[in-house]
Structures are given as C-alpha cells and as structure tokens.
Amino acid sequence: MSVFAYRQGELHAEALPLSRLAAEVGTPFFCYSHAALASAYDEFSAAVAGLPSMICYALKANSNLAVIATFAQRGAGADVVSEGELRQALAAGVPAQKIIFSGVGKTAAEMKFALETGIRQINVESLPELRLLDQVARGLGRKAIVALRINPDVDARTHAKISTGKAENKFGIELGHVQAAYQEASGLAGIDVRGLALHIGSQLTDLEPYRAAFRRVAEITAELRGVGLTVDRLDLGGGIGIAYRGETPPAIADYVRVVRETVGSLKTELAFEPGRWLVGNAGILVSRVLFVKPGASRDFVIIDAAMNDLIRPALYDAYHAILPVKEAASDAPVKRFDVVGPICESGDRFAEQRPLPPLQDGDLVAICQAGAYSAVMASGYNSRLAAPEILVHGHAFDIVRARPDYQSLLARDQIPDWLGAGSG
Ligand code: LLP
C-alpha cells in the first residue's frame, strides 16, 4: 500500500493529512515518507542478500541529507558524482569505505579530495582521466582503487536523454579499447585497478538490456582474466524504473535473477547503484491552485509550483500523476485541464489535457513520484525560492530543508561599488 493514500476524504502522507502540512510549511513543498524510503531500501537489500554485494545509493536522485541518512543507517553505501555529493554522503553518515565516485568528468581537485578521504573506489571512464588520476594519486603517495567503466553498447530502451550505454553516448570506455585500457591501468604506479563498472541508463522497464549488458561485462571479465589480469569487482550501476503511468517495471527479484545468471559465477564482489527505485515513490510535491483559468481552447489550472521546482515534465515530457488532496466524489465530473506553473514560459507545464475532477482556487494538489530527480534538479529561475523539503515519520514530520528567505536571495549577489546602485 502506498504511504500516500486517502483517508477520511483527504490525501495523507503516512498518518498526516497534507492540508495540515501545507498549513504549517506553506506551499509548494516536497514531502518525503520515511517509511517508504526505508521499505524500498529493505526490499532491495533483501533481494540482493545472497550476493556478495554492496548497495551504493545514487545520491543524484535525491541528496537531501535526511534521505541519505535514512539509507546510511540501514547500511547503505553511496554512489557520488561530485565533491559536493561526496561531502553530503560523508555528512549523512556513509562510511568512506562504502563510497564509489562515478562520473565522466572529475577534476584533479575532486580526485585529490576522494583519495584523501579514502573512499572505496573511483570509476574511471577514459584514458585521459585514468592518467590524471594516476598522477594525482602518485602526488599524494597513494594508489587509487579503480574500476573501469565500460560502454557496453546496448540500447536501454528508455528516454534518449537518460540512456547512457550506447556507443554514441559519452559514457565509459568503448568495448574495443577496454583490454588495452585495463592493461595500461594495471601498469600504473598510482592505480590499483580492481574491476569493471557499467550503467546503461535510467528508468529501465525491461530486463533484456540488462541481460545483454551484463553478458558483455562477463565476457570482458573472462577475456581480461584470460590474459592474467585481476578482476574482482563489478559495479552494475542503477537504472531500474518505477511506475509513473502504469508501466510495469521489473521486480527486483527478477533483476537479481538476471544478475545471478549473467555474472553470478564470476565470483566477484558486486555493487549496485540504485537511485530512482529507492526514492521515486517516496516523495510528492504538494502545491496550491492559484487560479482556475478557463481559456478559449483549453482550461488551465495554475498552481504555485513550477518547472523550477520539478523540471521533468518540461525536460523529458515526463508524466507525473496529479491528485487532488481533497478526495473527489466517485461521481464527480471529470474535465481536461492543462496544469501549469507561474513561470513565463509555455513549457512550464506539469500536465497537458489531464482529466481531473473539479478544482477551485485554493485547493491543494499532489504531484506524485517526486522523490527522485525532482528537488535535486530544481533551479532558482524567475527568482523563485526553492521549495522546502519535509520528512514525514508516522505522526510526526521534520523540515529537512527549509525554504530560503528573500534576504538570502538578495544576499547572493554583490553590486560593485563603482556601480553605486542600491545605496539609494
Ligand atoms: N549510477 C550512475 C553511474 C548513474 O549515472 C545513475 C543515473 C545512477 C547510478 C542511478 O540511476 P537510477 O537508478 O536512478 O536510474 N534526471 C533523469 C535521470 C538521470 C539519471 C542519471 N544517472 C530523470 O529525471 O529521469
């Protein structure tokens, strides 16, 4: 059962009615459920229990420290892609030994910080990156523990902007060059190359691309071992999809079966980097209807959340279910609306011609599946203040990221003295 459910005619987050939360924190706001986060993690963890593996939560999906801490407490590691995320993982209690640093463009400063912190592994995506990391590590008198990310050239059959495992994508080392790169890595004094990594894309709803990619990684592992190289770690990335609109994403148990069938016999340590699957369903964006505006060709519901809070519909044409917080009567008439935000762009639209029950000015709505790639992708466009984030825990809630104030908005910039403005 979803933790976001109607009770006594109103949508709740766990035991709390959303109207009460809206009255206390104002709208728009992101609302996360601790129970949903914990149960997703526990389900993933139970499914991979028999494998020699580590779950490294991909922070990029939602890097609120309270979210990371929820997973860290349950034993999770972290997959990070910047020094900022690395610092967040550490601050939330993830031990350095459980942190993997991924990403196609790390700077020397980030490499240095990661090496000094003593993280578990750095995933390297190109030869120039490998050579720079070798230099940085030698400069520190250390050896960087490395996995080489390969590009398995499989089609993940997901949205083009979040597909990462095809030859034309910027990610990973091409299949034909992996052996030479691994050879080179194993000869570098600052590098301890331990294995391979891959991540073929996000929001996958089909297991076949995984099967194809994992088979390739198994073949390459055998080849590398065949020439005397050591491969004892495989990082299988993330990518498992969730249901936004009736999709049927694979069950984790079935995903794990594919893992066992393809790479299970290689006797390597495994790492998983789920992001969306752990957090996507655990969050919603709650917003208030500012105006219902009838139009000549369509009717608009203008809400106080906008594309700066949740950009997925504008960026990927992503579908997010929208629910009225007050439960509609079962016989309520349904009309089609465009649900839009206040930003001065036509792309600031959460839904087009969406059937909805009657809504009035002042009503609350919940935009669903806003736990992943939502708050983290927010911007300050139109000088809108970032929506706060709250974490519900049974009958209680905490503000886990406060709404900034206008003072902090103005304090960000400096007017040089010679412009003389602002002095009145
Ligand atoms: N590992 C690596 C190396 C990744 O690049 C990603 C996501 C993950 C793990 C986690 O993938 P997940 O399990 O969350 O699918 N902003 C897009 C999604 C971008 C995903 C980028 N990489 C969206 O809103 O759909």
Automatic annotation (TrEMBL):
Q: Which Pfam families match?
A: Orn_Arg_deC_N
Keyword Amino-acid biosynthesis (UniProt): yes
Could you confirm whether the keyword Amino-acid biosynthesis appears in this record? yes
CDD domains given for it? PLPDE_III_DapDC (cd06828)
One biological-process term from Gene Ontology? Answer: lysine biosynthetic process via diaminopimelate
Q: What UniProt keywords are attached to this protein's entry?
A: Amino-acid biosynthesis, Decarboxylase, Lyase, Lysine biosynthesis, Pyridoxal phosphate
- Superkingdom, natural source: Bacteria
Pathway field: Amino-acid biosynthesis; L-lysine biosynthesis via DAP pathway; L-lysine from DL-2,6-diaminopimelate: step 1/1
What family is this protein classified in? Belongs to the Orn/Lys/Arg decarboxylase class-II family. LysA subfamily.
Assembly and interaction partners: Homodimer.
Q: What is this protein called?
A: Diaminopimelate decarboxylase
UniProt organism field: Hypericibacter terrae
State the gene name recorded for this protein.
lysA
